[in-house]
Give the backbone structure.
Amino acid sequence: MATVRRIDPPRSRQIGVPAVTVAILLAAWELAVRCGLVPNFLLPSPTQVVAALATDASLLASHAGTTIVESALGLAIGVVVGFVAAVLMDRFETIYLAFDPLITISQTIPTVAIAPLLVLWFGYGLAPKVILIVLTTFFPVAVSLVAGFRSVDLDMIDLMRTMGASDLQIFWQVKLPGALDQFFSGLRISATYAIVGAVISEWLGGFSGLGVYMTRVRKSFAYDRMFAVIILISVLSLALMKAVDLLERVCMPWKRAESKK
Amino acid sequence: MTASTLTRGGGEAPALEARNLTLSWDGGVRIVVKDISLHVESGEVVCLVGKSGCGKTTILHALSGLTTPLEGKVLLHGQDVTGTPGRVSYMLQKDLLLPSKRIIDNVCLPLVIGGMRPAAAREKAAPLFERFGLEGTERQWPSQLSGGMRQRAAFLRTYLMGNDVALLDEPFSALDAITRTDLRSWYCQMAAELGMASVVITHDVDEAVTMANRIYVLEGNPRGGVPSVVAGEVEVPREEALAAADVDDFALTAEYVDCKRKVLELLG
């Protein structure tokens, strides 16, 4: 059977179709609330959510600042820890065999279960939040990097050896660039975990942050503000993912040439 | 079949010589090739021909120093280089250009590995681009080049390894027929000009007769417990090949047909 090459739709269509879909859903939501199909105290309308966003803008910005600092710090440390773990696991088979199951098991522990323990051990400050984010973000980076290092063509490594390359040269010239694709896939997942991890840790204790704000508005049944903060968390996560995309474009210029083929 | 050896007269040591190599994939449990000897002189091309799985690549690995033979020696200009990588250049079926490096940086890789600064390596490689038919591709990424051009870049990288002996493992097999014909003629010419000795693995008997000064035919079935040996060697009259206007003309000569018949008979 002949294969048909898939052609990507034009950029305007790629943006236009989802934008129209979102607009229709928002309009239906607004209409449903205004017509009384859903009680307003249970579900605020989109215009009420926007109004809450505007009213609480400065307060939200202050709380968001705390969450961003926690997320950035946790993500940065998580990436470094994940990178070091991946390099060691790739370099030393014993370390890989010893830690691969432990790392996987560590991810089966629910974040909400471990967060209260971290608060108990490290208090209500920055430390437990950053540790929780590190625990959730290092895993995607480590696992994807190990997979990337292991996917490098063995013939390429043989070729490097015939050139007299050292292990460090093989890592630097072949393995690391070859694993960048997988690294950025992992980093994209870690970036989304970072914001969510920060919010979850703030739920369980703290003085500032979007999670703290969320807990307060939930207790006062201010659901319009609750939706406002949910939207803000989504926007922050998307912004962080976009930042990762930009970083990928800068670090992997050859991918643009490949995609143009 | 008895183990094959190559009897050589006195005189200058060959560019590369394998003496009585016995090789294994698993530390000696299963012998892949047994007591194989071959040699290649400067500017010569020799081809290894044999059925799939008979150990041709294993021989090349031993010649390159990537593996150490159970028995025997590899001599480079008479010097023992057994199990020492980095002394002969190696090129595989795949071009193995790094997608993350521009063509100039790909071909400079052996120089950079050898300790040269990237800027100095680029300066040294740049004048060779025209000679290798790669002018204008310096700043391009490997994905922007055709298969033939990528293979030329791989040849240039092999040349820049700075050795006068090259091992090529089916270097043309991934190319289309026209590009393959063009590239192998070009390679023979370049290798002769540069005085490079080449050991080429190929499955294609026509390719072997077209390129080689001498063809070693391997027989055996290591996976079936029968180690490979050299069934025989066929000398190709290069004067006839060089006298012909092009490769296709040589392919019509009686000498060509005779060589091909001998190789096919040895292959069984």
